[in-house]
Design a protein that fits this description.
Number of domains: 1
Number of helices: 7
Helix content: over 70%
Shape: globular
Number of strands: 0
Radius of gyration: 19 Å
Structural class: mainly alpha
């Protein structure tokens, strides 16, 4: 549980960056910016079905995870919401990732303008996530102890 919470908290800034950058691209496309219109939209099914489900379930998954950490519980209604959001999130995110696998090799071979800045922003976001996860580690550890006591197992 402690590792689960640590990784979840670590990923929050990375996920927020991904949602923000995707939102930016979507807004630029629908506002008619040529460089985004030229690339075209994602396939209709991904754009109209998978993306909304993946986005809402991602926010629900991480939001309920933080909520559970804040209230120091792993069960109850919030725990059920966390589990339900994961059940929705996993297939939608799997479809999202699998649909883009074919685009990865050409993207890695291409020399993209601003790649250094992008790598720097992502690296900084990971460092921020690690710092926040480290700062909340004691709470996650306490949550693990509470859960172990709740089911009658001494975590030590």
């Amino acid at each position: 549980m402690t590792v689960h919470a640590f990784v979840g908290i670590l990923l929050i800034p990375v996920v927020a960056l991904k949602l923000a950058s995707t939102g930016w691209k979507m807004a630029r496309y629908y506002l008619g910016r040529e460089e985004y219109v030229r690339r075209g939209p994602p396939p209709m099914f991904l754009r109209t079905v998978i993306a909304p489900i993946a986005t809402v379930s991602t926010i629900a998954l991480f939001g309920t995870g933080v909520w559970l950490l804040a209230i120091g519980q792993t069960h109850g209604q919030v725990g059920a919401l966390h589990k339900a959001s994961f059940i929705v999130w996993l297939p939608s995110m799997s479809i999202h990732v699998l649909a883009r696998l074919v685009k990865i090799p050409p993207a890695l071979r291409a020399r993209l303008a601003g790649a250094g800045l992008r790598v720097g922003v992502v690296a900084s976001t990971v460092v921020l996530g690690f710092a926040v996860a480290t700062a909340t580690y004691a709470g996650a550890d306490q949550l693990q102890d509470n859960m172990s006591a709740h089911i009658g197992v001494d975590g030590r």
